[in-house]
Write a structure and sequence with these properties.
By secondary structure, the chain is an alpha+beta fold. About 25% of the residues lie in helices and about 30% in strands. The longest helix has 15 residues, at about 135-150.
């Protein structure tokens, strides 16, 4: 099997992929060959998920869909680092010993079953404002920007304080799911203000 992969979609997925999660199968980019002709690039750390679907570009005989390859984070990172910036595609090829090559990097697919990302992606959103980790929202925007370039408007769709938000391309082929940031703590940031006694003294002096 030899497939042409999108450099930008690998970068998008790597943006949200963890490096040292205890769930080893999350530490990379999942390439889900969903059908004979369509694949999904996916990555998640449990608090944010990226999924991008695209047609498969086989460079040899097409394969039957329904399998996944989880490329380790370090393998993707190194392959992209070594890859010429002049090319927007990088080749994934299966090897006789059961391993794979991504560009000039040889790796074995991570063991384990990647989470069912389709269950995480909501079909509807309420539009109600929610609370989300700003770092994850920034990652989501970066991932979708990498996937789409500047050709599509990015949409941020919220669904209330207890539900996830969606950051997506207008076509919906590329989507990030940002889990809600649940907190019940009262945050004290009054140190920003001057103590009341100092304020009153200043007013009297004026």
């Amino acid at each position: 099997m030899k497939v042409s992969l999108s450099v930008n979609l690998l970068k998008a997925a790597l943006t949200v992929a963890p490096k040292k999660d205890n769930r080893s199968y999350l530490n990379g980019v999942c390439l889900d060959f969903v059908t004979d002709s369509e694949m999904v690039y996916c990555a998640t750390d449990g608090s944010i998920l990226y999924a991008g679907k695209t047609p498969i570009e086989y460079l040899d005989d097409p394969q039957k869909g329904g399998f996944q390859i989880i490329v380790p984070y370090d393998a993707v990172s190194l392959a992209l680092k070594n890859h010429s910036k002049a090319y927007t595609a990088i080749f994934l090829e299966s090897l006789p010993d059961g391993r794979y090559s991504l560009g000039d990097v040889i790796f074995g697919s991570l063991d384990g079953k990647f989470p069912d990302y389709e269950r995480v992606i909501p079909q509807t959103v309420s539009g109600e404002a929610g609370q989300y980790n700003p770092e994850n929202v920034a990652k989501a925007y970066k991932a979708i920007s990498l996937a789409c370039g500047l050709t599509e408007k990015i949409e941020f769709l919220q669904s209330g304080k207890n539900d996830c938000a969606i950051v997506k391309s207008r076509s919906s082929d590329h989507v990030c799911v940002v889990m809600p940031w649940r907190t019940h703590e009262t945050i004290d940031y009054t140190g920003w203000h001057k103590p009341k006694a100092i304020v009153e003294t200043a007013l009297v002096a004026a």
